[in-house]
């Protein structure tokens, strides 16, 4: 207890001096969070040696001295597996790091020389330290946060509304079972468990097909709740014209009331603690978005991603920080929104990718700017998987990408043009875009280090003002 109080006291001192930042790396499943965190740590640790960070002034000016991993604050949370991620990239052939399957943290001490170091020189030092706390968590769990806006009745209605034709096809087995249920009938524990399993299977099938707006997230990645009754619920279809008052007056042992109680328990004992213990402590945030994956998957998945992101963005607490809020009630005061895997399209398409990202998140970005929260959209590749080339044919030079596919085939491709606005039906009709998934570059190809695209721009936006 005494050590814990001392640690909290030290953190308060650091935060009062504005020398500590808590950065949330946010993204839905397969957005590239693990790769981003691995690259971020590597770039800071090897700044000026193996890492090129020209867009980060502290690095460009030689003031960034490096970073070290130190003991994190919460010893009950696993440490982000940086060493394992680097090891997977060093294999022959290289592999992408394993995706996040639980919450993890990492604390860095970043050493730098301030632009005006007169104060530090007078104290006998010409350098300063910024403590950066990094938080990672499964993208599947993120979409549980919007559940706090609902009760069981409204959540069931929303789930019904999100069932597109393809989602219905993927959920056919579950729907055939659940649509026969009488909400007023007595609940049978074994029957509910079986229907919940089929519902979870339908969510898994939808995720495998590229859909993003999937709730509850723990059904996809249950962790230590695997098999617990708290995960044995599901939405009830057909409530659009139902008498809500009648349903809520049914006996406690009815199917409807049993499912409603389990939904409420999930909110109170799974979602709220997760939000309270993690998301409310963040100072800054980067939201990673796999725009290309959704674009590649077709119109239903693209619309599904747009809806999921818009819903998710409402769950975070944004606003400017004062000294008191920084100490006792931190809020996210700077936000980056990044389209990942920019190296999977040719360089002249990067600006298109940012424009499309801004169109995809137009309403949330407007709300953030109205609240005077600084927000920046960019495209990046945390760890490059391709090299840019040009192909000459009949006197015309065409941009292309060279890389090794996940199956091990070396290839030269032009993925196509990224639209600069939300795609219209004619775009999907002509199948105007298709990108190939690549392995990360081998060490022999990259020549050491972890080559990237605009990781330095992201770092400058997220922490650059603290390194002045």
Automatic annotation (TrEMBL):
Organism encoding this protein: Modicisalibacter xianhensis
UniProt superkingdom: Bacteria
UniProt protein name: YcjX family protein
Pfam families: DUF463 (PF04317)
């Amino acid at each position: 207890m005494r050590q814990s109080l001392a640690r909290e006291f030290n953190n308060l001192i650091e935060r009062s001096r504005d020398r500590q930042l808590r950065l949330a790396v946010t993204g839905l499943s397969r957005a590239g969070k693990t790769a981003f965190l691995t690259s971020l740590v590597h770039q800071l640790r090897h700044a000026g040696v193996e890492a090129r960070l020209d867009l980060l002034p502290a690095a460009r000016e030689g003031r960034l001295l490096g970073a070290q991993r130190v003991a994190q604050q919460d010893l009950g949370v696993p440490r982000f597996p940086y060493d394992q991620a680097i090891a997977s990239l060093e294999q022959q052939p290289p592999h992408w790091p394993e995706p996040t399957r639980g919450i993890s943290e990492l604390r860095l001490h970043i050493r730098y020389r301030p632009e005006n170091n007169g104060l530090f020189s007078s104290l006998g030092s010409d350098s300063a330290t910024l403590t950066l706390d990094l938080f990672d968590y499964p993208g599947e769990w993120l979409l549980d946060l919007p559940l706090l806006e609902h009760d069981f009745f409204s959540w069931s209605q929303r789930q019904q509304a999100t069932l597109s034709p393809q989602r219905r096809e993927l959920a056919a087995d579950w729907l055939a079972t659940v649509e026969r249920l009488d909400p007023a009938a007595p609940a049978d524990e074994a029957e509910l468990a079986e229907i919940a399993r089929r519902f979870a299977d339908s969510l898994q099938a939808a995720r495998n097909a590229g859909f993003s707006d999937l709730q509850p997230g723990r059904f996809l990645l249950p962790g230590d709740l695997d098999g617990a009754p708290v995960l044995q619920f599901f939405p009830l279809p057909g409530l659009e014209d139902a008498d809500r008052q009648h349903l809520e007056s049914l006996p406690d042992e009815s199917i409807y009331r049993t499912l409603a109680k389990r939904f409420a328990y999930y909110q109170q004992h799974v979602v709220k603690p997760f939000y309270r213990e993690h998301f409310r402590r963040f100072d800054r945030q980067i939201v990673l978005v796999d725009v290309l994956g959704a674009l590649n998957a077709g119109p239903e998945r693209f619309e599904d991603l747009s809806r999921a992101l818009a819903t998710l963005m409402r769950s975070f607490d944004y606003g400017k920080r004062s000294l008191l809020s920084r100490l006792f009630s931190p809020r996210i005061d700077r936000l980056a929104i990044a389209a990942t895997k920019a190296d999977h399209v040719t360089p002249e398409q990067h600006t298109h990718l940012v424009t499309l990202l801004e169109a995809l998140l137009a309403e949330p970005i407007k709300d953030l700017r109205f609240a005077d929260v600084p927000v920046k959209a960019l495209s990046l590749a945390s760890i490059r998987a391709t090299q840019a080339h040009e192909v000459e044919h009949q006197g015309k030079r065409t941009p292309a990408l060279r890389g090794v596919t996940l199956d091990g085939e070396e290839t030269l491709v032009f993925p196509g043009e990224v639209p600069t606005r939300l795609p219209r039906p004619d775009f999907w009709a002509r199948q105007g875009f298709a990108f190939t998934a690549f392995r990360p570059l081998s060490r022999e190809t990259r020549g050491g280090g972890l080559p990237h695209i605009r990781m330095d721009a992201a770092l400058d936006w997220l922490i650059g003002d603290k390194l002045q």
